[in-house]
Amino acid sequence: MATIPPELVLEILTYTSGCRDDLMACCLVCRAWRRLAQPFVFSELSLSLESQCHPWNRKFAAYPHLAQYVTHLNLWGGNLGELDVVSLVEDQPPFLEGPATLELLRRLPNIKYLKIHDFYLPSEREIEVLCHFMRLEWLEMCEVMFSHPADLLDFMSQSVNLKGLHITDTEVRSLTEDLIGPTLHNHVDAVPKRLRNLKLQDVTESLYYLSWLSGGAFDLDDLVDLTLSWESFPTKRPHLPPEPLSSYIDPFISTVGAGIKHLRLDIETPEQESNVNYMLEHFISTRALSNFKALVTLNIDSINPYIKNDAAHLVDIERLFQHLTLPNLRKISITICFTLDTADHLPSYKEFPVWASLDELFASSQFPSLQQVMLFIEVKSVHWDAHKFGLRLEDSDSDNEDAASVVIPPLNILRRWTMLLL
C-alpha cells in the first residue's frame, strides 16, 4: 500500500478537527496517524466540575506528552445554574479551588485560548488560578461578574501576549459605579496588551469597558477586527446609559478607528416605538463611522429574536450610512430577517423591503472603492417541516376559519433556515 505523505494526513485531520469520534478513529489507523492525530484529539478541554478533573489527571500522569497538546480550555463556573446544585450534591469543593482542578491546570502549560463562562464574583483564589496561563493569546469572557474593578485588572494583568478579546454579558460591580470607568482607564500595565481582534457585547450596558480599552492597559495600534453589539432598551428604563455617551465612545473610536479594517455591527432593531437603540442613534447623530477611514469590509447584522419583520428597519441602516465617506470600503454585507410563526405571518414573506435609496447611496461617490454589496434575508419558521414538504399549516392567530389552513410551497433546503441573496 502506498504511504500517504504526512502533510496530506494533516490536511485530512484539519478537515475532521470538529469531530472527536473521527479523530479518534484516525488514531487507530496506524502509529504514524496516531502521532499526527493526537494533537487534534487533545487540543481542546472543557471543565465544569471538580470530579471531571480526576480522570484527566490520571491520563496526563500516565502520558505527560498529551497535556502539551491542550491549547484550548473552556471553564464553566456554573455559579448561577444547575452546576452549583450538582457540586453540593456530590460534596465537591468550589470549582477552581479543589486540589484536583489545581493539579490539572498546572499540567497544561500551552493554553493559548481560554473561555470562562458563568462565573459570579470569582474569589481571590479563583482569579489567582486564572492568572496561571502565561501564554494566553485569546480570551472569551461570557456571563462573568467581578466584584470590583481590581479583580478584572488582576485577572488580565498576566495576559501580556493577548491578541483577541471577546466580552459578552460581563459586568463589574462596585459601590461607586460611576468610578468604574476612570479606575479601569487610569490603570497602566507594564506591558500593554496589543489586541488584533476585539468583540464587545453589549456596548450600551457596559460603557466602562470602552474606557478601559482606550486607557493604559492596552495598545490598540494593531487592532484590525472589531465587533460591536448594540441592544435596544425602553425609553423609560430605570437606569439609562451614562450621559453623555460621547465621553465613553468618542475616545474609544478615536483610539481604534484609524486602524480598523474589518468591522461587524450587531444591531438590535427596536420592535416598538417605545424602545430606542441608544448606540445606533449616537452613531447616526455623530457620524462616528466616518472615523473608520481604513475600513475594508463592513458586516451589519440586524438582530432581534422576537421581531416578526426586522427587514422593515432597513431605513435605520440607511440613516447610518448617510453623510459618510469611506474611501477604502470594498465590501458591505447586511443581514436582516423575517420570522414566520403562524399562517398570519405568511404575507410578510413577500413584503421585501424597498432598498432603492440605499442602493443609490452605495453607488455614489461616497464609496469610491466599493465592489460588492450583499443583502441577506433570513427566513425563519417554527413550522419548518411544513415549508420543507409542502404541508398545510393548521395553526393561525386569525379568527377567520378560512385562514386556518394554508398550503405552503415546499422549499428545497435541508436546514431549519435559509438565506436568500437579493
What does it look like?
- It holds the Pfam family F-box-like.
- Residues 2-39 form the F-box domain.
- By secondary structure, the chain is an alpha/beta fold.
- The chain has a domain at 1-41.
- Helices cover 30% and strands 22% of the residues.
- The chain has helices at 6-15, 20-27, 31-41, 53-62, 64-67, 82-89, 99-106, 124-130, 149-156, 180-186, 208-213, 246-256, 278-286, 314-321, 356-362, 384-389, and strands at 44-47, 72-76, 113-120, 138-146, 164-168, 171-172, 197-201, 225-230, 233-234, 262-268, 275-276, 297-303, 331-340, 372-381, 392-393, 406-407, 417-421.
- The strands form three sheets. Strands 1, 2, 3, 4, 5, 6, 7, 8, 10, 12, 13, 14 and 17 form a 13-stranded mixed β-sheet that branches. The chain has a two-stranded antiparallel ribbon with strand order 9-11. The protein has a two-stranded antiparallel ribbon with strand order 15-16.
- The chain starts with 5 loop residues before the first helix and ends with a strand.
How much of the sequence is in beta strands?
A: 15-25%
So what's the overall shape?
globular
- Give the uncertain stretches in residue-range form: 80-87, 387-398, 400-422
Count of alpha and pi helical runs: 16
Gap between N and C termini: 50 Å
Main sheet summary: 13 strands, mixed
Proportion of helical residues: 25-40%
Protein name: F-box domain-containing protein
Organism: Guyanagaster necrorhizus
Pfam families: F-box-like
Domain F-box: 2-39
